[in-house]
Amino acid sequence: MSPTAAPWAPVIDVSQHQGPINFRTMRERGVEGVILRCSHGLDEDDRLRTNYAAARDAGYPHHVIGYYPFANPKRGTGRQCAEFAVRSILRATGGEDPPFIMLDVESYRLEPPNAGTEPVRGPAFAAWLREHHTVTADLSAAWRLGYSNAAYWNTAVGDRQLALALEWIVARYPVYPSAATQADAAKLAAWMTTSPKPPDPAGWAEWAFSKAAGPVSPMGAPWQGWQFSAGYNVQGARYGCSSRDLDLNIVRRDVWDRWTGQDAVEPEPAPPIIVTPPVNPVPVPPIIVTPPSEEDTMLTMLIMPAGHPEFAALVTINGGSHGMTGVAQDLALAKRRTGLELEECSPDLYVDLMDKALRSMGWSDSERQGLLVGTRQALGL
């Protein structure tokens, strides 16, 4: 399946760095949802409450507004930062639980107050993130996501289990100035004027996939969203922001609907149709029911390969389209949200489902094999 064959939701993430924002302009442009930075360590984002109120006033409902805490292990323990992030969100929303919380995992080396100091890396950083992840689950029923990319996560964190437990918005910018261009003010100004710009949000996915095959996710985990444009894109004013630049994201439509609870909205029941039988009824021919085609089938399973609970995953098959989400760290939450019980399957079936899921999400052969080889080895195949 072509990556652009699946519908995508256009989403923007913002923080105090965007300054005052006209969310009505953003909404009228076609942006479907926003992700607000809630905290950095034990500091609340300066514009969190203002941004939430302004977004609601502009017509964004609560369920399409998500949140992200910036991960900085030098600003508090994982528990302290998770507790502070959730408290900050609840203060902004008046106590309403958020639809999803996205842990922002990227370089914090230049962030005050530890600018220039040696960052926490490897197992110590992974342990901090695991604690943050677990405490967030204890305090909120929100879906828990991650934001990062393979280049940073694989070297700074290196935790495959945690990567598979999260759902991901992954950063990759196919249109971006080189380091040499960034270092030359005149060249950079010219580049920002002449570089290709994303179209209106309805065309973001087609534009992004025309520039690159997609992002490279942490430890090869399945990704659900792509931050395809950010620095030097000169898109801030276009979407009502005071900043020059703006983070632009696309998220798979089925995933976005699940994160925001829109897939659970029941349609209004149709009024009953009252039929008056004719005076002289005509015999009705038998009704032949045709089984649904493959395109119409829908199946959701919560599975694990026998003997490997760390590989537990939620699998959705919609006709020829497959999706697979690592939920090993979130079995209780996954069961509560789906009503499914964990089922064992053969390792071969698990790998086959993973392969189909990755194919449907547009992974290249080399990207798929990189993840599948490691999975087969871990499962003893």
Brief descriptors of the model:
19% strand; TIM Barrel; single chain; 381 residues; 13 helices
CATH class of the largest domain: Alpha Beta
Shape: globular
The helix content, as a percent range, equals 25-40%
Instruction: Please provide the count of β strands.
Output: 13
Listing every helix as H and every strand as E from the N terminus to the C terminus, the arrangement reads EHEEHEHEHEHHEHHHEEHEEEHEHH
What's the CATH H-level superfamily name of the largest domain? Answer: Glycosidases
Q: How do the strands of the widest beta sheet line up side by side? A: 1-2-4-5-6-7-8-9
Described by strand count, sense and barrel closure, the largest sheet is: 8 strands, mixed, barrel
Distance between the termini: 27 Å
- Derived from helix and strand composition plus strand pairing, the structural class reads alpha/beta
Beta percentage is 15-25%
- Integer-rounded radius of gyration: 23 Å
How would you state the average pLDDT, rounded? 85
The CATH topology name of the largest domain reads TIM Barrel
CATH-defined architecture of the largest domain: Alpha-Beta Barrel
Query: Number of DSSP helices?
Result: 13
Total count of domains: 2
List the uncertain runs.
265-297
